[in-house]
TrEMBL record:
GO terms for molecular function: metal ion binding; oxidoreductase activity. The lineage of its organism: Eukaryota, Viridiplantae, Streptophyta, Embryophyta, Tracheophyta. Keywords: Iron, Metal-binding, Oxidoreductase. Belongs to the iron/ascorbate-dependent oxidoreductase family. This is 2-oxoglutarate (2OG) and Fe(II)-dependent oxygenase superfamily protein.
Amino acid sequence: MDQAAENPSYPPLFLTPGSHLDPTPQPTTFQPGPTIRVPLLDLQRLDTDLLSQSCQKLGLFRLTNHGVPPGLSNRLFAFAREILSRPFERKVAELADGAVKYFWGTPAVSLNLKEVNWLEGLHVSVAGLSSPASESEFGEFRNLAIEYCEHMARISRTLFNTLAIDLNLDEGQTTTYLSESNGMFRVYRYPICPNPSSYLGMEAHTDSSVLTILNEDEVGGLQVLSEHTWFNVVPVPGTLIVNLGDLIQVISDDRYNSVKHRVLASSVTERISLGYFVFPQEDSVLRSTVYNPFTLKEFRAQVQEDIMKTGSKVGLKQFRKEMPNLS
């Protein structure tokens, strides 16, 4: 029997019997591509030239010697798997509100069922984890998440301070354009998909962050777009993947690249990853010679409006300045 069809923890839409998904292959099929060589950086001995080149070209690099204890990551992965392995109805009922919220699929799934993201996960409010209610409800998972996010905030600040020098940011910009207290943590599980050539684990997109730090298992499936080709990013145990988001592309006046990426679905095994996203201060106005000024709140509102209208994010094009016609 199909493993996906008998798993009660999966969203009903992902179960083959009685599924409302169209099994007809899509005009574009999703297949593994060539493997890309990802720049490797040592956080304790940062090569500033390589860091700058990685941000300008690929917009993604691998981080080693980052100081996150392997045991911490392993325990967090284990707890995340346990929570997401609970029956679907229980997750929906118990994780609707609070510091840890359950989500699945595509934000605007009702617009186009053929383009549903084959994933589910946990949205963790870093600030909400400090409340007494979260301590009693989530116990050790809460404590592990807090410790893990402290490491992520440290890594984000270390990287951004170095990039700020490369971008000639002043002290005020260095402080407000990245806020360690404004981080977001998510756990992603990519369920087994019966037709992985027709659906994606996560659709092609750029992140709405300054920086994103990814901690993934050994399964793989992440792809990045470079020179009009989708490349596989092969997992390397003990390392973290850092990718640049839209907001640092704005801060850099398009010198840095917010990399487009996606995740392939698998018919063989599930995939788990931990994603940490860091943003500017909410009221900080991002200024650029290429984009109109905006705040994080305004950017998020535009993204949500675009998703509701079109089913996907439009992104920075909505804020780009009109270039004068010189003809």
